[in-house]
């Protein structure tokens, strides 16, 4: 009888107490913890490439002052590498920050940004981009539900 088919009573009959490793596949239990908890290297590499590409586009290729004032704070897979959550920070102190206007302009150029990302990476499919914009006076990081553009 294999270990995973044993019932609790059968295991108690053969031992004094049940421990956390009882009934666990030894191949999984004895794996090094660093290999189990290690972040995906390829996803991190893709995030860096997406961040660099979007930062370059936002730096001045669009010709809009409100969008040029945005800087890439982070890019993370959300929930995996097929969709990226891009956090942008508005840095323009001299221009009044209009979140709704910036989100509308960003939604209008999302296709252009995705096409630029697709040209910069070597994958079969370009990831979908979602944006979170943090204003110049926001104290905390906004969640995607508070001000995200998809």
Structural write-up:
This protein has 150 residues and is an alpha+beta fold. The chain contains 8 helices and 4 strands, in the order αααααββααβαβ. The protein has helices at 8-14, 26-29, 33-36, 41-58, 65-68, 99-108, 110-120, 144-147; strands at 70-77, 83-90, 128-134, 148-149. Helix 4 (41-58) packs across helix 7 (110-120). The longest helix is centred in the N-terminal third of the chain and has 18 residues, at 41-58. The N and C termini lie far apart (52 Å).
On the 0 to 100 scale, the average pLDDT is 79
- Strand residue content: 15-25%
Largest sheet: 4 strands, mixed
Q: What is the spatial order of strands in the main beta sheet? A: 1-2-3-4
**Unreliable sequence segments:** 139-147
Helical residues, percent: 40-55%
User: What is the succession of H and E elements?
Assistant: HHHHHEEHHEHE
Inertia-based shape: elongated
Cα-based radius of gyration, to the nearest Å: 23 Å
Count of individual helical segments: 8
How many beta strands in the DSSP annotation?
A: 4
Put the structure in a nutshell.
The chain has 150 residues and is α+β, with helices and mostly antiparallel strands. It is built from eight helices and four strands; from the N terminus they run αααααββααβαβ.
């Amino acid at each position: 009888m294999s270990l995973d088919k044993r019932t609790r009573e059968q295991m108690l009959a053969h031992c004094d107490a049940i421990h956390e490793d009882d009934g666990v596949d030894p191949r999984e239990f004895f794996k090094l913890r660093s290999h189990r908890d290690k972040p995906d290297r390829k996803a991190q590499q893709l995030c860096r490439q997406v961040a660099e590409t979007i930062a370059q586009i936002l730096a001045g290729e669009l010709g809009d002052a409100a969008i040029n004032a945005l800087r890439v704070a982070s890019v993370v897979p959300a929930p995996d590498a097929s969709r990226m959550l891009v956090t942008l920070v508005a840095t323009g102190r001299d221009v009044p920050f209009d979140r709704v206007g910036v989100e509308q302009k960003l939604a209008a150029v999302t296709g252009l940004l995705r096409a630029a990302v697709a040209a910069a990476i070597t994958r079969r499919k370009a990831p979908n981009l979602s944006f979170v914009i943090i204003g110049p006076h926001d104290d905390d990081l906004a969640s995607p539900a508070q001000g995200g553009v998809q």
